Structure formats: C-alpha cells, structure tokens
Amino acid sequence: MNVIRLYNIKPKEKLGQVFLIDERVLKREVEYAELSSKDVVLEIGSGFGSLTKFLVEKAKKVYAIERDSTLIEVLKSYVIAKNLEIIQGDALRITFPEFNKCVSNLPYVISSPITFKLLKHDFEKAILTYQKEFAERLIAKPGEKNYSRISVACHYYASVRILEILPPRVFYPKPKVASAIVEIVKKEKPFNVDEERYFALVRDLFSHKKKTVRKALLSSKRIELAKSLPSNILEKRVFKLDPEEIAEMLEYEN
C-alpha cells in the first residue's frame, strides 16, 4: 500500500485492475513456482511490480508484460533489476517470449482467453491467480455444473489444482468475490487428435452445453455428424461428455 500511496496509483476499472498487495501471499506464489537461477519467468499483468520484485530475486530472467503505460513507469522505478525485461502491450495480442514458468496475478477480465493462449505454449509450470469461480471451472469434471470448454482444454494439456483460496482483503481494491491460486503443470497429452478440429468441435458442443449432443450438433450446423454418431452418444448431455468421448466423435466425421 505504501507504493500505491507514493505513486498515487488509481486502479482503472476498464482494465480490470486489482492488485494483490499482501506480501505473504506474493512470497507463497514464488515458493509454489519453485524458481531457480535457471528459470525464465513470464509474468502477465505485472502492474506496478508487487510480484515482480520477488520474481527477479529468484529467476534467471523475468519478462513482465503490462498494458498500462502509467504502471510501466512505476514498475521501472519500483523494480530495478538487470534480469527484468518489461514488455508493454496487450498479452492477448503479443507473441510471448520463450519461458519455462509463468507466475502471474492475471487481470481477471482476460482469464479465459489468456488461459487458452497459455495452454498452447510449451512450459513446465504456471502459478496463476484467478477468481475462485473461474478456478473451479479449470478443475471441473464431466457432469459438474462448472464443466466447460476450459475444463476440457485443461484436461488435454495439463494437470491443474487449486492451491489456496484468497479472501478479498489481500487485494486493492477489494474485489467482491474470493480468488484462488492455481497450479498448472503441463503434461503428456492423453490422446492424439487434430487439435484444430478437436477444439472446434469442443467449442461448438459447449455453446449448447445443456442440450443433448444431437441438438447441440444440429444447432451448430454439424448435420452429417449428428446423423452418423451412435444413439447412446447423441442422447447424452454435452456437459456429461468425457474429453475422450469428444475425441472419439471425430472418427465419425467425413
């Protein structure tokens, strides 16, 4: 909070700026990442550097991505380190540098698209802070209410677990909801598919997740696939499909 007062930082609501300010939590995030002097870290949404200052102490290199030019000027003054490279830009649009670990208190407004983008990259481990409700979607299983496209993507690319729940008081300004620290560890893919076709099908199905597979496919204009699948799959609700079952559906496409 001293830094916020010193630089008169005023969070911008349109950018979804909420800063994690509890140093005990920030230090735990770094510990969860198990950083060493060999690690190259990507930080998305570095803000004024509350987490960055701890990352540069442990890692070989830290790339800090920040969109807000005002915060970048504060970051340059607050965290001075030779192993820090600041990248100004929209994390959804820029090409990520090479990294093996990601540690970030993500802007919650981009949680879904930035997670999809991260999952497609080659890295070892990510320690990320999300809204609790979104974090629960990442680990949801078939049949659960939070099961979604992002649940399927996480199952395909990584092992995911919630490490701890964070109360609003550790942030500034205080959000109205609880948050969660999540660990994402990349893994060997559980099955072989054409990823573009697979995730296009996942997208179409989960656009109608409460419908039967038959109705979801027809609504998505996948008429031929709806005609060729076995009836036991067609009558199943989309949100009850295992990721593997969706992969098997591709075999029925012409």
Overview of this protein structure:
The structure is a single chain. The chain has 254 residues and is an alpha/beta fold. The chain has 2 domains: 2-186, 3-Layer(aba) Sandwich (Rossmann fold), CATH 3.40.50; 195-252, Helicase, Ruva Protein, domain 3, CATH 1.10.8.100. Helix content is 37%, strand content 19%. The protein has 12 helices and 9 strands. The protein has helices at 2-6, 23-33, 52-58, 69-78, 111-119, 132-139, 149-157, 195-206, 213-219, 223-228, 231-234, 243-249; strands spanning 19-20, 40-44, 61-66, 84-88, 101-105, 125-131, 158-166, 171-172, 179-186. The strands form 2 sheets. It has a 7-stranded mixed sheet, with helices on both faces. The protein is elongated. The model has no long low-confidence stretch (mean pLDDT 95).
Summary?
This protein is an alpha/beta fold and 254 residues long. It contains 12 helices and 9 strands. It has helices at 2-6, 23-33, 52-58, 69-78, 111-119, 132-139, 149-157, 195-206, 213-219, 223-228, 231-234, 243-249, and strands at 19-20, 40-44, 61-66, 84-88, 101-105, 125-131, 158-166, 171-172, 179-186.
